[in-house]
């Protein structure tokens, strides 16, 4: 067989895949949220190298903007090169050393993920219990500390699976610090949308994802550690079990050296920069207020449709509205109908709440009156089609 | 202090960061390479959800296109949600179990990274030696197998740090399989630019990055495993040490279930799809031929400037041209001059070759006559400024 023939044959086998034409969705699920046009435009910016002096400047700016958004002065504030679970594993996999004990919550999906990550890091895991749909009670946390003396305590500030906001954060961090433990806060669904003050509330480590209240495509995920936490990381006896997420190596790239570790996802960093600029322009506290206000209208509208919120008002999470599926209504049929007929994404429940709730996000650029009106109108139609009357 | 006052104060502290205006570089370094305008356009496409039926279709298409590009029918062919080092660690961290022995090369920067990842996975590491700038000799590989009986053998198909192409791949995989070992090939700088035939050459696991010969922004990185390798992964006694990169969990998302694991970097998957469509349109073998031909012109032009290639012709790597820095020329001054005066990126040597070579990429959309003519003209000027005459 001649070379020319081989080439032709191989080329003939090339898959025929058409132009990229995804549907034009309105994203009101648990993330990703609608991305601001300015951020999409940043994504199409031609690349510079990941060690280019101009990129080093961009890295500095992103770090500064992240600090503002986290409300922290932490030096170790970086985007991790992966999606939210990568920043989560960077936090847990570096802070938890073999032999350490980590206390994790049971009141939602993401406490279970914390457990799995801590175990893989070589840690022991103990739990503080609360039902899915409730926040942690500081009394239970204190009791768990007294019983187990954990080294690290993880909690979920905004539980995406249940739509519950954890109140009393400073109370939780006080308990942990009174017991000489470190606190890791999962801020995936709160950063940039719901009040979180890393320094004032004395959170040692916090991580997030960009595709929630920051309305940025996923791929570079916020992480911040205070000096005390970073000292523990840098003093580890055994290297972290992931090379990719080893913060002592990432320190070389994001710290003063700017030495090569891995190729950063340049475009995702561009996008995060633009998304964070939008946060700074709006002002972080105004942004929190907008989420409360717009999601408040959503909540009122849902209640007007005769629906009940899953979380009591005091734990209501503006960025993720968990609403109960009424008796006799097929939750999946409503979700599919909204997607097919309205190009509108909302989500079902996860884990313990599967089938019981819908999850309606109200995050970042999706937290707009336009989106809220649309989701309420579409949901009213879809419920009526199922025989449910407001 | 009133709430209004607090808000204003916080907002006043917001960092002032201007519009994103990076310089317009021509990227002829070791990656990222210039990104095709169609791929940049794909990056600015509005997002759908990561579990949207339309995204599941896109995932299928990307997998099919990746199989074509890797020349494989492997079912387990996916983009890993991170940059090339993430797909590298996904390969090593899943295949290497505690107690396994991995054989790694010493002839470049990335063998050292393999070693670190294998050790963190709980493996023992043994080495097969060759100087930086040489490929592995099959005789040495055979000898290392006889001496150490490793379970896993990793080699670098295209060494980005030295500009050396590893020939005799089928010979290496035969040796490994005769010793019942698995083969992992680092194809970061070869996939889509230099001949690599995963199935025909009997490579068990191969990984790559998107920002080299695929000319796609980094963030979602190709990985393929054959059934035999995936069986080892799924039969592990101990879970892999990274949750984020656990292939048994990723199987749930990219396999038949399409169940939630983590939020995929949707936009990066869009971009990869477009970059791979360009591969399919050109035809993989034509693309390899283009890289040989355009990089051949680059090599000839460099030699016309009186420069010597670092690798002998038989190991020459078209996608990464390592060229010796002439005596009396300051390598860093040339690099900085090209960047400052020509908006042109080339790179210095790494590790053992630091200061001795320049690395000039010729990858994907950067492998064009236009780019080659530009880099040759600019380099001629820069060398003349240093007193070097062709």
pLDDT < 50 runs, ≥5 residues of chain A: 1-8
Helix coverage percent of chain A: 40-55%
Largest interface: A-B, 95 and 94 residues
- Overall pLDDT metric of chain A: 95
Largest sheet of chain A: 7 strands, mixed
Instruction: Write down the domain tally of chain A.
Output: 2
Q: What is the alpha-carbon Rg of chain A in Å?
A: 22 Å
**Class of the largest domain in chain A in CATH?**
Alpha Beta
CATH architecture of the largest domain in chain A: 3-Layer(aba) Sandwich
Superfamily (CATH H level) name of the largest domain in chain A: Type I PLP-dependent aspartate aminotransferase-like (Major domain)
Question: Looking across the biggest beta sheet of chain A, what order are the strands in?
Answer: 2-10-9-8-5-3-4
Oligomer category: homodimer
| Structural class determined from secondary elements of chain A | alpha/beta
N-to-C order of helices and strands of chain A? HEHHEHEHEHEEEHEEEHHHHEHEEEH
Shape of chain A: globular
Question: What's the number of extended β-strand segments of chain A?
Answer: 14
Number of helices of chain A: 13
Distance between the termini of chain A: 72 Å
Looking at the structure, the CATH topology of the largest domain in chain A is Aspartate Aminotransferase, domain 2
Give the strand content of chain A.
5-15%
Region (Disordered) (chains A, B): 1-34
Protein name (chains A, B): Alanine-glyoxylate transaminase / serine-glyoxylate transaminase / serine-pyruvate transaminase
GO molecular function (chains A, B): alanine-glyoxylate transaminase activity; L-serine-pyruvate transaminase activity
Domain Aminotransferase class V (chains A, B): 48-349
């Amino acid at each position: 067989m001649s070379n020319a023939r081989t080439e032709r044959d191989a080329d003939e086998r090339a898959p025929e895949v058409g132009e990229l034409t995804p549907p034009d969705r309105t994203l009101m699920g648990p993330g990703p949220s609608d991305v601001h046009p300015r951020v999409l435009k940043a994504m199409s910016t031609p690349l510079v190298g990941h060690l280019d002096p101009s990129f080093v400047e961009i890295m500095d700016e992103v770090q500064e903007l992240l600090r503002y958004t986290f409300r922290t002065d932490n030096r170790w504030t970086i985007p991790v090169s992966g999606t939210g679970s990568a920043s989560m594993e960077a936090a847990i996999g570096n802070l938890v050393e073999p032999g350490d004990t980590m206390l994790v919550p049971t009141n939602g999906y993401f406490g279970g993920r914390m457990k799995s990550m801590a175990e893989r890091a070589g840690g022991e895991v103990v739990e503080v219990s609360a039902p899915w749909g409730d926040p942690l009670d500081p009394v239970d946390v204190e009791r768990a500390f007294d019983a187990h003396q954990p080294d690290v305590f993880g909690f979920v500030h905004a539980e995406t699976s249940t739509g519950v906001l954890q109140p009393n954060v400073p109370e939780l961090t006080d308990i942990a610090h009174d017991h000489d433990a470190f606190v890791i806060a999962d801020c995936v669904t709160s950063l940039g949308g719901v009040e979180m003050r890393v320094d004032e509330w004395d959170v040692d480590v916090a991580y997030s994802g960009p595709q929630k209240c920051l309305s940025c495509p996923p791929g570079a995920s916020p992480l911040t550690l205070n000096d005390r936490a970073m000292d523990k990381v840098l003093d580890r006896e055994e290297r972290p079990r992931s090379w990719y997420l080893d913060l002592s190596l990432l320190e070389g790239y994001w710290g003063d050296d700017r030495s090569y570790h891995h190729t950063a996802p340049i475009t995702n960093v561009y996008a995060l920069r633009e998304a964070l600029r939008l946060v700074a322009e709006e002002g972080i506290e105004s942004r929190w207020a907008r989420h409360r206000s717009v999601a408040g209208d959503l909540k009122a509208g849902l209640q007007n449709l005769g629906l009940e919120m899953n979380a009591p008002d005091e734990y209501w999470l503006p960025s993720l509205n968990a609403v109960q599926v009424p008796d006799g209504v097929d939750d999946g049929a409503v979700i599919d109908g909204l997607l097919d007929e309205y190009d509108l994404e909302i989500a079902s429940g996860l884990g313990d709440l599967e089938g019981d709730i819908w999850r309606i996000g109200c995050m970042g650029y999706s937290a707009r009156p336009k989106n809220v009106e649309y989701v309420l109108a579409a949901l009213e139609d879809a419920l009526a089609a199922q025989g449910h009357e407001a």
